């Protein structure tokens, strides 16, 4: 259950949102959660699915899911959308990679 995760600290930020280190209290498991705020009004969209942020995240999720069997690619474990909040929040739960971004590893 994504909503039961405890967000511990921000570990990164991108064009559309932030990535948080989150822990599942019941198991102690640690995950990376990308949180993207989707605002229909700012994007002149009719609904959330028409926003640039939503379409970009949908594309990213689809690419990551296509690579599910590749051990070098971070796995998407779940997706949730907090409707009714403003702005709407799209949350993508992924494996936590404690070594940082690809750029960090290549340095």
Secondary structure class reads alpha+beta
Oligomer: single chain
Question: Spatial order of the strands in the main sheet?
Answer: 1-2-3-5-4
Portion in helices: 10-25%
The overall strand count is 5
Mean pLDDT: 84
Annotated CATH architecture = 2-Layer Sandwich
Find the CATH superfamily. Answer: Phosphorylase Kinase, domain 1
Radius of gyration: 14 Å
Protein name: Protein kinase domain-containing protein
GO molecular function: ATP binding; protein serine/threonine kinase activity
Organism: Strombidinopsis acuminata
Binding site for ATP: 34
Question: Which labels suit this protein?
Answer:
alpha+beta, 19% helix, globular, 2 helices, Phosphorylase Kinase, domain 1, 5-stranded antiparallel sheet, 107 residues, 36% strand
Structure report:
This is Protein kinase domain-containing protein. Keywords: ATP-binding, Nucleotide-binding. The protein has a single domain, classed as Phosphorylase Kinase, domain 1 (2-Layer Sandwich), CATH 3.30.200.20. 19% of the residues lie in helices and 36% in strands. It has a five-stranded antiparallel beta sheet with strand order 1-2-3-5-4, with helices on one face. The longest helix is centred in the middle third of the chain and has 15 residues. By secondary structure, the chain is of the alpha+beta class. The chain has two helices and five strands; from the N terminus they run E-E-E-H-E-E-H.
């Amino acid at each position: 259950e994504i909503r039961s995760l405890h967000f511990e600290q921000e570990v990164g930020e991108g064009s559309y949102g932030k990535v948080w280190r989150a822990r599942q209290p019941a198991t102690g498991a640690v995950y990376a959660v990308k949180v993207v705020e989707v605002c229909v009004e700012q994007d002149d969209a009719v609904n959330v699915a028409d926003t640039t942020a939503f379409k970009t995240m949908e594309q990213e999720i689809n690419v990551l899911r296509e690579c599910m069997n590749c051990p070098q690619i971070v796995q998407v474990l779940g997706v949730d959308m907090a409707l009714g909040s403003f702005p709407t929040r799209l949350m993508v739960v992924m494996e936590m990679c404690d070594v940082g971004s690809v750029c960090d590893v290549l340095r």
